[in-house]
Design a protein that fits this description.
- The chain has about 400 residues and is of the alpha+beta class.
- It has three domains: about 10-125, Butyryl-Coa Dehydrogenase, subunit A, domain 1, CATH 1.10.540.10; about 125-235, Beta Barrel (Butyryl-CoA Dehydrogenase, subunit A, domain 2), CATH 2.40.110; about 240-400, Butyryl-CoA Dehydrogenase, subunit A, domain 3 (Up-down Bundle), CATH 1.20.140.10.
- Helix content is about 55%, strand content about 15%.
- The chain contains twelve helices and ten strands.
- The chain has helices at about 10-25, 30-35, 40-50, 70-80, 85-105, 110-120, 165-170, 240-275, 285-320, 325-355, 365-375, 385-395, and strands at about 125-130, 145-150, 150-160, 175-180, 190-195, 200-205, 215-225, 230-235, 275-280, 280.
- The strands form three sheets. A four-stranded mixed β-sheet has the order 1-4-5-8.
- A hairpin with a 2-residue loop joins strand 9 (about 275-280) and strand 10 (about 280).
- Helix 5 (about 85-105) packs antiparallel against helix 6 and helix 5 runs antiparallel to helix 8 (about 240-275).
- It is globular and about 80 Å long.
- The relative contact order is 0.12.
- It binds flavin-adenine dinucleotide (FAD).
- Flavin-adenine dinucleotide (FAD) binds next to strand 1, strand 3, helix 11 and helix 12.
Length: about 400
């Protein structure tokens, strides 16, 4: 009987350690404070580093845990449960997902400096793919890198980028994708590690977002930014494929974090409907409410196991080559499609159960609604793009709608 849904002892211990830390250091009061002040305090980042959660997917020689994907999903789920605004989960998952790809394919120079510092909570590794012209069509990005002598010269603009302020303050950088041989389309794109404080990089914007207020979203311009070969990630002209690999890693963690946040929302909702009375009894006694709870809980469990099954596939892919990248990609897209939309619905419904109180900032749920909306609307990939990937694997490449 090979099908076994249990976690290892180490995984259970890690889940417990994160829960304990969050119950003291990442309470809903603290999350509200971060949401209001618009920043993640240093003690929280240090706490994540002390728990070895930052870029936990990186290898041990730079200080990482070399964590597998099931373990990393556990961390993402627990952080989503604690910080329903999703600011800390974003800080965690962008780095665990994209930091994994940087650690795997970047030079020793980049790994030993940028990845190692991010792991210690003294740096930041993000993703800068989206441009003012759009994010879904990665192959249409306009930013370029030209070879001049033994250097690469980067020009272009990236926008709606998570963590630009944090990256600047911590001297971090981004996995970024640019054209190196424009006439070759997606086969002429290269990934670079772009230090945010490199001469020629200018952070030009901080957006006023709807949610996850404690982490910034911004944009930057690259003007004649000079990088050596040490900053090329992987092979020249293979950046598109590395970007797709990074999206798989990050999207899986996005789904996990949405599952965690949605679980918290249902727990908050259950506490409320057990004690709030209308017509002489707790509102949880009314079928109009408890049937909805039962439906949402069932959907959440189904989604949660979809996410863990996909994490298990990712581990099999990396450790044993057991599943093809496209197969895994389809499952990841199912997770990214389902979890944010379900989480959004769960926050919306549990807010409704709270009546007028649910519409106030005295109730924590609105932070969650705003937070999960970021992933529902498209951070780490829009919903329709996930649908295209899923349908492509079901129907064949000839059914890709934009070709
Ligand atoms: C809070 C937040 C943080 C973000 N952080 C980052 C980051 O750190 N790094 C980064 O690179 N990007 C980041 N993004 C950008 C994100 O990756 C993009 O929003 C996403 O890829 C979609 O791109 P777009 O917003 O330009 O929408 P578009 O690509 O312009 O798409 C607009 C709409 O059209 C739909 N659409 C597009 N093509 C098709 C099609 N073929 N068929 C049907 N529908 C289609 C999409 O589903 C979407 O609803 C962030 C976004 C948000 C909201």
């Amino acid at each position: 009987m090979p099908l076994d849904f249990t976690f290892t002892e180490e995984q259970e211990m890690l889940r417990q350690a994160i829960r304990e830390w969050c119950s003291k250091n990442l309470t809903l009061e603290k999350v509200r404070e971060m949401d209001t002040k618009g920043e993640i305090p240093h003690d929280v980042i240090k706490g994540l580093a002390d728990l070895n959660l930052l870029v936990m997917t990186a290898r041990e020689d730079v200080g990482g845990m070399n964590a597998d994907w099931v373990t990393t999903v556990i961390a993402a789920e627990e952080l989503g449960y604690a910080d329903i605004s999703l600011a800390v989960p974003v800080f965690f998952l962008v780095q665990a997902g994209w930091g994994f790809v940087v650690d795997r394919y970047a030079s020793e120079e980049v790994r030993q400096d940028y990845v190692a510092r991010a792991i210690r909570g003294e740096g930041f590794v993000g993703i800068a793919s989206t441009e003012p012209g759009g994010g879904s069509d990665v192959a249409a990005m306009k930013s370029r890198a030209e070879r001049r002598g033994d250097k690469w010269i980067l020009n272009g603009e990236k926008t709606y980028i998570s963590g630009t302020e944090e990256a600047k303050a911590m001297n971090g950088g981004y996995f970024t994708i640019v054209r190196t041989e424009p006439e070759k389309g997606h086969r002429g794109m290269t990934a670079f590690f772009l230090p945010i404080n490199a001469p020629g990089v200018e952070v030009v914007k901080r957006f006023e977002d709807l949610g996850r207020m404690a982490i910034s979203t911004g944009g930057f311009v690259m003007k004649d930014v000079e990088l050596t070969d040490a900053y090329v990630i992987g092979e020249v002209n293979k950046g598109f494929y590395l970007t797709m690999e990074g999206f798989d890693c990050a999207r899986l963690l996005v789904a996990a974090t949405c599952v965690g946040a949605a679980r918290r929302a249902l727990e908050i909702g259950m506490d409320y409907i057990k004690q709030r009375k209308a017509f002489g009894r707790p509102i949880g006694k009314f079928e109009g409410i408890q049937f909805e709870l039962a439906d949402l809980w069932t959907e959440l469990q189904a989604t949660r196991w979809l996410v863990y099954r996909t994490a298990w596939m990712m581990d099999k892919k990396y450790k044993e080559g057991a599943f093809s990248p496209l197969e895994v990609c389809q499952w990841v897209s199912m997770c990214k499609l389902k979890a944010p939309q379900l989480a959004f619905r769960i926050f919306e419904r549990t807010m409704i159960w709270h009546g007028a109180y649910g519409y106030t900032k005295e109730c924590p749920l609105e932070m969650g609604l705003r937070g999960v909306m970021s992933y529902y609307i498209g951070a780490e990939g829009a919903q329709n793009i996930q649908r295209i990937i899923i349908a492509r694997e079901l129907l064949g490449k000839e059914f890709i709608p934009y070709r």
